[in-house]
Amino acid sequence: MNMEISQAAAAWFKRELDLKNGDYIRLFPRYSSGGGLHPGFSLGIGTEAPGRSAIQVEQDGIVFYMEEQDLWYMEGYGLTIVYSEADDDIEYKYEAKSVPGGVQV
User: Fold this and answer.
1) Where are the beta strands (DSSP E) in the chain?
2) Is-above-0.85 flag for pTM?
3) What is the percent of the chain with per-residue pLDDT over 90, rounded to a whole number?
4) Which residues of the chain have pLDDT under 50?
5) What is the sign of the dihedral through the CA atoms of 20, 42, 100 and 82?
6) If you ran DSSP here, which 8-state letter would residue 49 be given?
């Protein structure tokens, strides 16, 4: 699993959540009536420091991460978070990752 955050998306998080350099964004699966990668779940966000970070990426001074117990949500996918200027909001883009032999999961 890989995770990328655009600079514009990181700036949106900083503005919307009043974050400063060195702050954290935790991404985690949560129950949701809307659709995400898995029916009944979507990505939630929190601003706490990592406990058992399994993957993390720094962008624009903010550390974005997922905990070990939450990686099941992204299994077989990569995540890119981008900023949508038209909606003044962030957008999650999921990309299926190939495994050896060319099979997509």
Assistant:
1) 3-5, 24-31, 41-46, 53-59, 62-67, 77-84, 89-96, 98-99, 103-104
2) yes
3) 77
4) 103, 105
5) negative
6) P
